Amino acid sequence: MHRLDNGQPIREAMAAADLSIEDLAERTRTIDGYGISRSTIGHMVSQGSSGRSEFEDRSCGLVAKALDKPLGELFSIDAPM
Fold it and tell me: What is the pLDDT of residue 81?
C-alpha cells in the first residue's frame, strides 16, 4: 500500500489524537501484541528524504486501526502518481 499525500493524512490524524510517533507505535503494539516500529511510523510521516511511500499491508492496517480511521483515508493500494 502507498501512503496518501506524502503522509499528510497520517500526520493530521496523529495531531488530532495528540499522538507522537512513540505513542502511535505503542498503540499498534496494543492491537496485536507486536505492533510496528517507531522507525516505520517515522518513514510513514516523514516529508523529507527518510520518507517512504510504500508499506506492508499489515503496517498500514495497524496504523489505521490505532488512529481509528478507515484504511482508505490514510493509504491507497494504487501506486502513487
Answer: 47
